[in-house]
Amino acid sequence: MNKKQKKNLIRILIAAVLLIVLYFVHLQRPVMCILYLIPYLIVGYDILKKAGKGIVNRQPLDENLLMAIATIGAFALALFRTGDFTEAVAVMLFYQVGELFQSYAVGRSRRNIGELMDIRPDYANIEDEDGIQRVDPDDVEIGTLILVQPGEKIPIDGVVEEGSASLDTSALTGESVPRSVRPGDEVISGCINMTGVLRIRTTHEFDESTASRILDLVENASSRKSRSENFISRFARIYTPVVVISAVALAVLPPLIRMAALGLGGDWGTWVYRALTFLVVSCPCALVISIPLSFFAGIGGASREGILVKGSNFLEALSQVKTVVMDKTGTLTRGVFQVAGVYPAKAGGSPAQEGEDPFSADELLRLAACAERHSSHPIAHALRSAWGEDPESCSIDAVEEIAGHGIRAKVDGQLVCVGNRKMMTLAGAAVEEAAAVSQAGEAAKETVNEAAGTVIHVAVDGRYAGRIVISDLIKETAPAAIEKMRRAGVSRIVMLTGDGSAAANAVGAQLGITEIFSELLPGDKVSKVEELLRESGAGSRYADPAEDPRRPRLAFVGDGINDAPVLSRADIGIAMGALGSDAAIEAADVVLMDDDPVKIPKAIRISRKCMRIVKENIWFAIGIKVLCLLLCALGIVGMWAAIFADVGVMVLAVLNAMRTLFVKKL
């Protein structure tokens, strides 16, 4: 418990003890009234204070005013009629017990989320002539060399300059598998260094680092309210004055009717007592507390799994998603060029090659990697990575890059041409069909249809040596993600890509996606998403069907860098692999802390569980509230039973709301 909760608990205990003592004291009514006011003011002075402020600020109709009116009225009834002051104090006492429980539940929820998101570093280590100095991360400038020792958090995003280590990224991604880093690797703030000492050159200021941006997202999520929360606000504005008017009518109309129509006594005390009880029961605490708490806990549970939702409005919209539109590169595929297959030419495949032995796959890859040794093109990097050995071991000279064709160079005395078919024509080599398939290195273990990648042809001394397929391989979890989305209730999955139709169709076939739109520019993607939005709102009475709040929602999933316009246009923008992407965090509504597409169906299931609990609490709280109000109006239940019902409903609703924190097995 925090200090405020402990203070409230002490007040409740003191008031309870005084109430028990006074129960056995018997004095005249005015004296007993004064004595009972002592525990009443101890336990309820803050409620009376809030009610007074509400009246002064012209916002009086809230639960504090209802409790003040009900308990003061109960004191008045006891003083002038019943003589039982216990009920008035007990009502305030039980109300404060319920408030304490609610405060503890909300605080526990916040602490859980705080522990899960405890990624803000307290200091950064800087080395100088006096040794290691601890400084405030806010004071560290871009380009500073910082030291991170085992057990410490990385305070600021940067690049490893010296050292290697394993990093615990679980607070960011929800994954327990450590990530290994070495010199040249980018690292992000919030990760915990588990093993070696790292020297990191910072690339961001502290406020712009990943940990700070994530915490800002979570802290500001509560400011974006869902339609359900706005409904509660509108409901309370209408409900409270209706309840007050109903209570006044209950106190006044029945006695007047008895006197005027039946000629009986008014029995004012009975009806005023019922009206006060009616006010006590009417407090909409369960709704006002449990609905925001459900969303808050849902956002916290998602954060624990590495899914950042920017607000409860987006969490609610995510639960209504029926169409998921996905970018290909970086979302369904790894986004990095790799050698997918090496295809040497057949022996004797052309008259010029009669009697010559074919090149082996290893030799073909070696020659291509050496020829591309000095190129910065991603394809050149893929060739060098697949070869795995030092290209500097080759003797290379006379390097010539021919625009639109490829590269020509002398490798170990042989003229090697690497490029497209135009390059082969220039080299005088006839392109032959591949005869064998070989895989090179750990980076390319799957057999990939040539149509799904970029084909690089190789010629040696005018002789066609074979081809190498460079492909962006599908992520291992992508097929499972598509299947789980369908099981989660997503009825339509669409893939958009700027790649050629052959590569796009090949990826779609492997994933079971039938709706594919290829060769799209960023503007074309926006137009296609707008078309899909209109289709999802077909038949709507709205001028723009895409604005229909009841239609199924459309989510777009992209890498967050090139897809920012589409992320902004969709109902829900989900950024993949966005740990270091400013564009993703700015444009997306949901940010996945790693690039695992399986998190997409998990986010949908979390949102639907949250909305299910919200609806349960709304119906449960309103249903019990209406029933208790009816029983109070008929005089079947008294004030003690009323307050038990009110606090009980609130406690049950809060406990139900806390279930949204537990999403591990979804």
Which key phrases capture this entry?
22 strands, Calcium-transporting ATPase, cytoplasmic domain N, 48% helix, seven-stranded mixed β-sheet, alpha+beta, 16% strand, Calcium-transporting ATPase, cytoplasmic transduction domain A
Structural class: alpha+beta
Strand runs, count: 22
Query: Which strand order spans the largest sheet, edge to edge or round the barrel?
Result: 10-22-21-20-11-18-19
Helix count equals 20
Residue fraction in strands: 15-25%
CATH homologous superfamily classification of one domain: HAD superfamily/HAD-like
CATH class of one domain: Alpha Beta
Residues in helix, %: 40-55%
Query: What coarse outline follows from CA principal-axis ratios?
Result: elongated
Distance between the termini: 30 Å
Which whole number gives the mean pLDDT? 79
What is the CATH topology classification name of one domain?
A: Rossmann fold
Rg from C-alpha positions? 35 Å
Uncertain segments are 434-451
For the sheet with most strands, the description reads: 7 strands, mixed
